[in-house]
Write a structure and sequence with these properties.
Layout: H1 15-25, H2 30-44, H3 59-71, E1 77-81, H4 89-106, E2 109-113, H5 117-120, E3 127-131, E4 134-139, H6 141-151, H7 161-167, H8 179-191
Parallel strand pairs: 1-2
Antiparallel strand pairs: 3-4
Helix pairs in contact: 1-2, 1-3, 2-3, 3-4, 7-8
């Protein structure tokens, strides 16, 4: 389990000790601990700050350390509660890319509650949507979005841009999840539909 606030989950003073703490608590032998810690340090690319004080780390590094300290325990399921809420956009993107690697390369099941849907939904194979405590969709992302569209649910407006554009088009085309897929969708759609220009808004011209 990884919390929202990076500082609230760190319990030791050194990066290497934070990685080893969970394994020490489980009573594993030193050889096993060293092997797992080295493996996770390499996987997460934290060798260069392995011996640093945790107080010297940035918010993104702290959250990455929290994630690594959990993954060193080799969990079957990883649960994340808005883990990027305290991170800047660049650190958040790097963190979510690491989450994708964990799922793809280690096969770990990941359950994440996240507000950066543009980044998370394309990586997901299952999307659960709740409204006032009730589950209103549980399916592949495109199918879950279609469930929102059929209900004309206001949560449509929080979905990624390619999905929202798709919802306004007519035609039997697959719902895009990424910007690249959305561009391809619009290109194909334009071949069979008339495209009209959008009038420019009249306004004051600004000069510097």
């Amino acid at each position: 389990y990884v919390l929202q606030d990076p500082d609230s989950q760190i319990v030791t003073d050194k990066v290497w000790h934070e990685l080893a703490f969970g394994l020490e608590s489980l009573g594993l032998d030193n050889e096993t601990i060293r092997g797992r810690v080295a493996e996770m340090a390499s996987f997460f690319g934290i060798q260069t700050w392995f011996h640093m004080e945790v107080t010297q780390l940035s918010g993104g590094q702290k959250q990455l350390l929290n994630l690594a300290s959990i993954m060193v325990l080799q969990p079957d399921v990883l649960i994340l509660d808005e883990p990027t809420s305290q991170l800047d956009p660049i650190a958040a993107t790097d963190f979510l890319q690491t989450i994708g690697r964990i799922n793809q390369e280690l096969g770990t099941t990941i359950l994440i509650c996240e507000h950066r849907l543009e980044d998370v939904i394309p990586m997901a194979n299952r999307l659960l949507i709740m409204d006032h405590g009730k589950l209103i969709a549980d399916d592949a992302p495109a199918n879950a979005f279609e469930a929102l569209r059929s209900r004309k649910h206001p949560m449509l407006h929080s979905m990624p841009t390619p999905m929202r554009i798709w919802s306004s088009l007519n035609g039997n085309i697959s719902c895009p999840l990424t910007v690249s897929d959305g561009k391809n969708m619009l290109t194909n759609w334009a071949q069979d539909h008339t495209i009209t220009s959008v009038l420019k808004r009249e306004g004051k011209q600004h000069t510097e």
